[in-house]
Write a structure and sequence with these properties.
The protein has 352 residues and is α/β, with parallel strands linked by helices. It is 18% helix and 23% strand.
Length: 352
């Protein structure tokens, strides 16, 4: 445990427990550790499915998940990430809410690997869907960690270093960005933008990034730092540049003061688009990836303020990261909704 808000750190030794049988690089369905969880990958290179904003339970999610399953089997994917808005439109009402089944387990059956999950604004809806005005609802998703072989969210924010043996190849830092990016003011003082929860999370992240010896450091968030889609950049979400919440100004500060120049990647959803941005300017070498099109897609609208390598504002899709010591290769896939066919749209290679 890291001593802050009881947030656990998953040690490399802890990942050793419960090694599973592999078939063609993908875990066999139903093979889980003694604690019921699918095991973390222990391979020298790690292949990761990246999805975001998936939890509708509708046709778009199912067609993307089926297409991703094909690529996961072909590529030997051993890990997945879900970048928030896991349960549309209002989040889960309990840790045994049947929407966990219809909007996560059923669509992703066969992608039998750990899914590193983060909270999104819809997961913490208040009176209005997607407001992020009731962060405490996210506790149901943390509790669901104990019920699912796939779902990995041991705390509202956490870190995972992989693989188990030797120096970690990659370390993931999963954040909860909802309290500083809600569309309404937080009424619970604990979750205020400058309240104890966000102060503790910031201190944990600062210390954890500084201590990490991983070759690659990847921060997982729902709300992006930089974004050329319609939601815009942190600090000016929806074109709002005043106030402590809707603009995301304090999330921008967190990124620029703690993350940029220290992490290699920020992976985010929120915008229902696919974007591979560059590392220039205030990013200080930290690359923003937006991957929020796993169930919904935008209509081609954009708010381009950042340089990009590639972006798609109107397709459903997902990404695959192939992480090695010397490079990360990122493959972006779009999915034809009529046929369910995945197509590799772009490949970006970042050398160490």
């Amino acid at each position: 445990m890291n001593g802050l808000d009881n947030q656990p750190i998953i040690s490399r030794r802890g990942v050793l427990a419960g090694a599973a049988v592999l078939a063609g690089g993908l875990l066999l369905p139903g093979i889980a550790r003694a604690d019921g969880k699918f095991p973390m990958p222990t391979t020298a290179d790690i292949r990761v499915l990246i999805t975001g904003d998936a939890g509708t339970g509708e046709a778009g999610q199912r067609v993307v998940a089926a297409a991703a399953k094909q690529i996961c089997r072909a590529e030997g994917v051993g890990l997945a990430v879900g970048l928030g808005d896991n349960i549309y439109e209002f989040g889960a009402d309990s840790d045994d809410d049947d929407e966990f089944s219809t909007k996560f387990e059923q669509p992703n059956a066969g992608i039998d690997v750990p899914w590193l999950m983060v909270l999104g604004n819809h997961d913490c809806s208040g009176i209005f869907p997607g407001s992020g005005g009731n962060p405490s609802k996210g506790d149901h998703q943390v509790a669901y960690h104990q019920r699912s072989a796939r779902w990995y969210m041991p705390s509202r924010y956490y870190q995972v270093a992989l693989p188990a043996a030797g120096n970690p190849l990659v370390e993931f830092f999963a954040l909860d960005t909802v309290p500083v990016s809600s569309t309404v003011m937080q009424t619970d003082p604990r979750y205020a933008w400058n309240g104890p929860y966000m102060r503790d999370q910031r201190q944990w992240l600062d210390r954890s990034l500084a201590a990490s010896g991983a070759t690659w450091k990847i921060v997982l968030t729902h709300h992006p730092y930089r974004n050329n889609g319609v939601h815009g950049n942190a600090g000016a979400y929806e074109g709002v540049t005043i106030g402590d919440y809707m603009s995301g100004i304090h999330l921008k500060e967190l990124f620029e003061e703690v993350v940029c120049g220290r992490a290699d990647y920020i992976l985010s959803g929120h915008d229902h688009t696919l974007q591979i941005l560059d590392t220039a300017g205030t990013a200080r070498g930290t690359q923003q990836i937006v991957c929020g099109a796993a169930a919904k897609h935008d209509d081609g609208g954009s708010n381009i303020t950042n340089q990009s390598f590639w972006q798609d504002f109107s397709s459903l899709g997902f990404m695959i990261a192939k992480i090695r010591r010397d490079a990360v290769t990122l493959d972006a896939y779009t999915v034809d909704t009529a046929t369910g066919t995945p197509s590799k749209a772009y490949t970006h290679v970042r050398p160490r």
